[in-house]
Amino acid sequence: MKKILFSCTIVSGCLIGYTVPSFADGGYQVIPFQAEFTKKSLNFDKKNLFPLILPDYVVEGTKFYGIKGSFSTKTLQNIKDGKDQTSSETLFNLLSSTTNACPLYAEVADSYNVIGRKYGFYSYNTAIVKQKEAGVKTFEYNYKMPDGIPMKFGGGRCIFLSMDGSDFAGHNYTMKADLNLIVKVPHPKPVKTYSLDFEFTPGGLVSYVVYPVTKDGVNNTVHEGTLTGIYGNVSMTSSLSTTKQWQGYNRIVVYKNGSCQKAFKNHKPTKFAWQDTDQSMRGLGHSVSWPTTNVVSEMTLSGHGRGSDIKQMTGNNQLPVHLESGDCVVHAIVNSFDKTTSAPVRLNEETQTHFTVIPD
Questions:
Q1: Which helix (H) or strand (E) holds 94?
Q2: What residues contact 275, with CB distance under 8 A and at least 6 apart?
Q3: Residue span of the signal peptide, if any (predicted)?
Q4: What pLDDT does residue 223 have?
Q5: CA distance 189 to 357
Q6: CATH architecture of 192-359
Q7: Spatial CA neighbour of 234 closest among 222, 217, 247, 221
Q8: Distances in Å between the alpha carbon of 120 and those of 86, 101, 102, 116, 288?
């Protein structure tokens, strides 16, 4: 009888990871999915299954669009009768359970028929990795379909990865997937877009474009709802004739828990611009660093003398963020300064950033 042994790697352990989803440009959502497993086997008799419970926002009507990431295997050298007979192969299969059941971590299945009877699976992607020499073999995967595949899942809300592999020698053989699954969920309400565009020739230390949040989103305010995406760019130019260094630190921030009114006292009930001139605001002592704020995008522009810089801004992994009446969405620019003297430097700063909200 052929003996098959399974074990976790000592160094990295049995890994399966999933984090708070991040929101990519274009309305696509990215679900991280990592799994790694080391086994000893002589054939393909056993398949190993690795589950991931879908995030709550993945609802009926969600489509699968693609994968960005990698599949890899690690094979030890197999010398037999003085000859290098190293060989390995793994078929990776991304599936979803259409029943109420979900596999256990590294669950063993004898065949795809067994998997089908238990989970009624639906397949989204397969990838093959083969080796004929010792070491690590990695296949980088990066595709997004023009139209997605409707996702099918049962009450268990479960997708899982099948690793069907062997090195045919009974040595430690490691299979690994490090993936970002690209999906798009249907929006029950139309997405609204708001612009944080403004141009400054700042005299203060921090410049702001502010969008207050109100229940109904009237009078050029933001409707209560979920902030899902950030996109756009910022440009800075300098007319300095010297070689002095300058930079501008940009943040897009959601002010929560009454901090909007505290930071911008008696502000207008509509979109507005604001500048801090208090010298105590130098550095990061300004309101965008308060614990009641949530940074959803940030980047720095820099240069020296007469010149310019331009960069894009996109959302980070803090998205999505729910917006309530009394909050505000802010693009803050920490005014540029001469790095050698910390003296404020006047530059022209223009933001053309935007954000998307699904209204409540």
A1: strand 88-96
A2: 200, 202, 203, 204, 206, 207, 208
A3: 1-24
A4: 94
A5: 10
A6: Sandwich (2.60)
A7: 247
A8: 35, 9, 11, 4, 50
Write down the residue that tokens 């042994």 correspond to.
5
The total number of residues written for the chain in this structure: 360
- DSSP letter string, 37-72: EEEE-SSSS-EEEEEEEPPTT--TT-EEEEEEEEEE
Q: Which amino acid is at 194?
A: Y
According to DSSP H, which parts of 53-187 are helical?
112-119
End-to-end CA gap in the chain? 62
* Whole-number pLDDT of residue 106: 96
58 — phi, psi (to 5°)? -80, 105
Unique residue bearing structure tokens 């049962």? 154
| Listed residue (276, 263, 347, 261) closest to 308, CA to CA | 347
The residues spanned by each domain of the chain are: 5-184, 192-359
Q: Are strands 328-334 and 245-255 parallel, antiparallel or unpaired?
A: antiparallel
242 CB neighbour count, 10 Å cutoff: 11
Beta-ladder partners of 358: 226
Whether the Cβ atoms of residue 331 and residue 250 lie closer than 8 Å to each other? yes
Say which amino acid occupies 347.
L
Residues of the chain with pLDDT under 70: 1-26, 187-189, 202-204, 239-243, 277-285, 335-346
Q: Is 219 left (phi over 0), alpha (psi -120 to 50) or beta?
A: left
* pTM to 2 decimal places: 0.51
Are the CB atoms for 311 and 231 separated by under 8 Å? no
What is the pLDDT, as a whole number, of residue 182? 94
Cβ neighbours of residue 266 closer than 8 Å, sequence gap 6 or more: none
pLDDT digits (tens, 9 = 90+) for 299-314: 998 887 777 888 999 8
CA dihedral 129, 132, 136, 141 (to 10 degrees): -30
Q: What are phi and psi of 249, to 5 degrees?
A: -95, 120
